Structures are given as structure tokens and as C-alpha cells.
Amino acid sequence: MKKILYTVMAFALLIGNTSCSEDELDPTVSQEKDFNSSINTEEDLEGILAGAYNRLSIETYYGRDYIVFNEVRSDNAFSNANSNRFVTAGQLEVLPSDAYPTDTWFRIYSVIGSANIIINAENIEGDAAYINQMKGEALVLRAMAHFDLVRLFGQQHVTGGTSPGGVPYVTTFRDEENFFPARNTVEEVKNLAIADIDAALAIMSPGLDGSKEFITTSAANAIKARIALYFGDMTTAATAAKAVIDSQNFSVASESDFASTFSTDNAVNSIFEIAMSPTDNRGINGLANIFLNTSYGDVVVLDNFLTIFDDDDIRIGEDFIEVDGAGFTRNIGKYPSSTFDDNISIIRYEEVILTYAEAMLTVDPAVSLQYLNMIPAQRNASLYTEATLDNILLERRKELAFEGARFHDLVRTGQGIPLIDELQQTHKGVPYGSFNLAFPIPNSEVDVNSNVSQNKGF
């Protein structure tokens, strides 16, 4: 099912319930919007859920910005300011008044708002198992969205950060007793997100799992493993990752097929992806146009990045990397289509394999090495002789480059952002603990919600 169907389903709901406008489904964290429509049937829930998936695809969330933020703030890429995009993000000097924090904060909370409508809907007519499946998908979306917020805006990596340092974990669409929720602690956000996914898995059924363009039980476990790994909960990460592996629904993409997986919908290694279609996509504002040599083309690969690979590793071969006429190194393998209709991978099986390798590192190094080597074995790269954290992080950097993982891998392991090229990078190196490792809370939120304090340093 392609994203065009997301839009059709949402449009059908809006036609059927004329009091339910697009604006009313886009709450900010302060939940100012009114919602008076009656949600009575499984078709009503389908429409709201379609809207939530569609909001994931907007360029201010996974359609572009959330992925790019975590590449230009790392040692993988930089902004060359070709169209003046992602300059302040690459400098790690984003301001509370900037569009980047404002738009992304609003977009992610709009996903949460849609999810909350579904989760809290009662007395819905229709097939009970299918309704539970949709509620489970919404619970996972809510968990993932709050996790993404705390990774961007939380101060868990900032020395002396403002307490409590997390983000508001919003669980109702419009709570008249809590219009302006306060920030939860980072630990609370983590625990609530894991609890939401556990609640989802308790009501979802693998037999009802469908396209990889929707949350499945495997996607729920993969996202749970990602959250647990980020917070260093290796037991939970290992259990969740192993559940995905044991499903036997996925495989590491082969050397010959790997490049094509980024232009193939529902590929063998895809666990959850955002649908794009020829008629419904982000167009010139999407990921392809920001990475490729185009009129935008602001995100450029750091020259140093190529030195971490074996010479014949396919991940720096002609299917993935090219040097343009201006001498800039470009990512051309991921989000490759000039027609902008490639689905966007949110989580791949290869990430789960590397998560399991890291989670097993101190438990069983032999098993860790076995899973670590599953990736280079299919990339025409040298195998590792030892499983170490450095080797696992190196392989994650190689495999997940330009997918938004690198910044988080650096900071979750207590590292700052290294300065490796004074001419290309503009942040001059950012040590671990710096307030600039977190985005500021947008002024548009702080100014209307006195319960939300600004982050340290802004």
C-alpha cells in the first residue's frame, strides 16, 4: 500500500466528518486545537492512522530534516550552504527562534496527537482484532515520536542540563485538565515509550501484520531495541532484537542486491519504511534533492568518511558515492531517485543485527562477533577478528551512513562531535557535555507554556 492511499484514506475521513479538519488533527504540545468529531468506526480510525503516517513523511520530520540533522551534526557530512539549508544545524548553533526546532517540534507532536486520538478512542464499531492492531500501531508511533523528540531536544548529554531535561510525554489528544504539560524527565520518557510498545505488542497480532509501510509486530520490536540500545539497556535491546531475528521475516541484503534495496519498496531487509509514490512525495524538498548534486544539494559527504572503508567495499562503490563536477563527494545510493518516489527507510534489518551484536558484546563476545560479521560478509569488506564496541560503532557508521544514526551513536557512547576537517566542518568540534548537543525548545512553545523550561544555554 503506497502513501497515496494514506492520503486518500485521510481525505475520505475528512469528507465523511466535515467538522474534522486538517488543522484540528495537528495539535501542538499545548493542545490548543479543538476536536469535536465523533470517532465511531474502524474506518474512522483508519483515516486518523493514515494521517499519522502521512505526517511522518513531511520534510520537517522523517521526510528530510530529522535524518539530515543527525548527519550534518556528525563526522559523516556537512552543509556546504548551496541553498543555505542546514547551515545552523551543521554549526550546532540552532536558536530557539529558528524554523528547524519549531517546525520539527510541531510536526512530531502532531503525529502524537493523531496517535492519541486512536489510542483513546472507545466503543469503536468493527472487527475487534483489527481495531486493536491499529491501536497498537498508534502506541508504537507515540513511543517512537517521543523518543525522537527526546533525542533531539533532551539534555541527557548536556553537563548540568536543565532539570528534568526531557520532553512532555503527551498521552491524550486534548486534556482539559492539562493543556500545558510540563517536561518529563529523560528516564520517564524512556520508560513510558517502552511501556507503550509493550502495550502495543500485547494487543497486536503477527497474523495481521501487513506492508512494511505500516508498523508491524517486528517493527515494534525493532523500535523497542533501538530505544533500549540508546539508553544502554542491553538486556531489553537484546531481547527485542532477537524477537525480530527469530521472526525469520527479514534477511541482510546480499552484496548484489544491496544497492537496489534503497529503490525497492518492501525490500527483504526493510522493517519499517515511509511510503512515497510518483504522485505523493516530498518533491524537491525531500532527501534526494538535499543529497544529490541539484539546485539544493546542501548535504555533502566529508572527504574523511571514505577513508574508513576497504577499497572494494560496495558501500563506497559507484552505486553509492560519486564526486560531482565541483569536487564534492555525494551520497547517491540512499534516496537515489530524481523523481523523489523512493520509500524512506526508518529501520532496516541490518541495524537490528548490529544492535544485537552490541547488546551481546559483554554477554557472549563470540555471538557478538558472529552477528557483527554478518554485515561486512555481504559488503565485500574484511571481516572483524574481534567484537569490540569500537568495531561495532565503526560498522554501524559504515552501514547506516546518511540514515540519521551517526550523531546519536556518538553521543550515546559519551563522545562529542569530532573536528576532522576545518575547511568542511563549521562547528569546530563540540565536546561531550556541551549544551549545543541538544536543540533548544522552540520559543513558540516556551512562550505559551510556562510549564516548559528552556534548555540550558539558550
TrEMBL record:
Record lineage: Bacteria, Pseudomonadati, Bacteroidota, Flavobacteriia, Flavobacteriales
GO CC terms in record: cell outer membrane
Signal peptide start and end residues: 1-21
Chief location category: membrane
Family named by the database record: Belongs to the SusD family.
SUPFAM superfamilies with a match to the protein in the record: TPR-like
Keywords: Cell outer membrane, Membrane, Signal
Name of the protein: RagB/SusD domain-containing protein
Domain annotation RagB/SusD: ranges: 341-457
The SusD-like N-terminal domain, residue ranges: 30-229
Localization per Swiss-Prot or TrEMBL: Cell outer membrane
Domain of life (superkingdom): Bacteria
